[in-house]
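[job 4471] stage=fold_predict status=RUNNING
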Amino acid sequence: MDMAKLKPRYDRYEWETLVTCVYPEEDRALHTSKSWDGEGFRHFRDPRIVCIEHYLPKSLTIYSGSQQKPAA
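[job 4471] inference complete, writing structure tokens
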């Protein structure tokens, strides 16, 4: 997958707000003993580390089973 073709998940305002409100991963251990479980926002202080989650669609919905209505 070509990184140049990926569209960022967050616009500039959302990104600045999240980075301001959420501690970087490098500081997580200073504030909690819980590791990141894949839910929510995370970021790294080092700009060379890019989280693939920042490029996933916001409305990623996983459906189980069929989407058809059952027979009456």
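[job 4471] summary: Residues 3-55 form one domain.
[job 4471] exit 0
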